[in-house]
Amino acid sequence: MELKIYTKKREEIIDLTSKIKDIIKKTKIKEGLCVIYVPHATAAVTINENYDPAVCEDFLEALKKIAPKGIWKHDKIDENGDAHIKAAIIGPSEVIPIKNSQILLGKWQGVMFCEFDGPRERRIIINVE
Amino acid sequence: MELKIYTKKREEIIDLTSKIKDIIKKTKIKEGLCVIYVPHATAAVTINENYDPAVCEDFLEALKKIAPKGIWKHDKIDENGDAHIKAAIIGPSEVIPIKNSQILLGKWQGVMFCEFDGPRERRIIINVE
Amino acid sequence: MELKIYTKKREEIIDLTSKIKDIIKKTKIKEGLCVIYVPHATAAVTINENYDPAVCEDFLEALKKIAPKGIWKHDKIDENGDAHIKAAIIGPSEVIPIKNSQILLGKWQGVMFCEFDGPRERRIIINVE
Fold first, then answer.
1. What is the rounded CA–CA span in Å between residue A112 and residue B122?
2. Is the pTM of this model over 0.95?
3. Which residue among B32, B90, B96 places its CB closest to the CB of C89?
4. Mean pLDDT of C107-123
5. Cβ of A92 under 8 Å from any chain C Cβ?
6. What is the ipTM of this complex?
């Protein structure tokens, strides 16, 4: 299964949790694994609190200190060297167990798509098995 | 299967390797995958050397430079903004292949629970299939 | 299945994409998951662009700022404290869905082995199921 999303800013965190729960409900799977995979080299997926929006702003701010914009060799070609570094550190996938037809996210955990070089159309692959 | 642990400090690394090996032995699975999943937004799991304790101290020190305590927007609500950033960077899961009834950890690799906002009671989900 | 590689420098990124695609072709698997696992505590695997070599150089440079060489407690024993930190942050595994006998890497994504303490002989476990 695949989700398509349209990001609106250069950097943006988008909560995918409810969409993923809907997909798992439709598959009628009872036990197994849910893999969320982002097939892009300047985006990623992470798991974090989705209640206070400041958590995601802090996260983007911390990554900005690790990889500030505009100082990388790859910027000569694409101006998105920072986005590649952030994507590689956070990674393109998350793996979450499913039990009793439920994804085992903790109470404060949400699945968050990370845009590092938007705005763009992005795909998210959801593999349940 | 689920492990319950009680962390004792705000930041702490706890080696889960022997407990995970015991669980795999009990399942009698021969080939497959072991997924370790932490359902918390201020804790994580990583894989690292478990022989010299300085390796884990260095790891926590490096994360402290990435996300120092007390400078984040979320701190106004919870005083654990740094813990959320660390948890999102390290991630809540590890996936390790199983072969000949053995988890394929390297000689110097251990599965390490990372507490970033303790002391707390924490759960760790072990999925073997 | 297992790959063996010989790294040539202390820090080096090696593109494994074509080797992994060959392995998946040989298994004749149609749908499932490909897990790439590095059983070493001073190496890792990441996914990033593999077209412009500057992307990987930038990535190593950013990690060097997170964990500079020579300032860690573990250096007294092994002089590779920085390599352990980098390996734990990037992580030893990647999980990629397979569909229609194809690994679902994005157009600009490659599977990259990360050597942080070479030169060494290194193993990479490829689990397809």
1. 22
2. yes
3. B90
4. 98
5. yes
6. 0.97
Residue C83 C-alpha, separation from nearest chain A C-alpha, in angstroms: 15
* CA-CA-CA-CA dihedral for C125, C94, C71, C122, to nearest 10: 20
| Token representation of residue C9 | 């420098």
Contact assessment for residue C33 and residue C95, using Cβ atoms and an 8 Å cutoff: yes
**pLDDT attached to residue A31:** 96
Do the chains contact at B89 and A94, CB–CB below 8 Å? no
Residue contact C106–A76, C-beta within 8 A: no
Q: Which domains does chain C have, with CATH numbers?
A: 2-128 (2.60.120.460)
Give residues with Cβ within 8 angstroms of B74, minimum separation 6.
A52, A54, A55, A58, B80, B81, B84
- One-letter amino acid for residue C21 of the chain: K
Within an 8 Å CB–CB cutoff, is residue B35 touching chain A?
yes
CA distance A49 to chain B (A): 6
Which pLDDT band, with edges at 50, 70 and 90, does B50 fall under? confident
At residue C50 the predicted structure's pLDDT band, cuts being 50, 70 and 90, is: confident
B59, B48 contact by CB (below 8 A): yes
Choose among C80, C29, B38: nearest CA to A108.
Answer: B38
Nearest-angstrom CA–CA distance, B31 and B47: 21
CA distance B82 to chain C (A): 16
Question: Which of A13, A31, A38, A47 is best to mutate for the B interface (most B CBs within 10 A)?
Answer: A47
Answer whether the bond into residue C92 is a cis peptide, omega within 30°: no
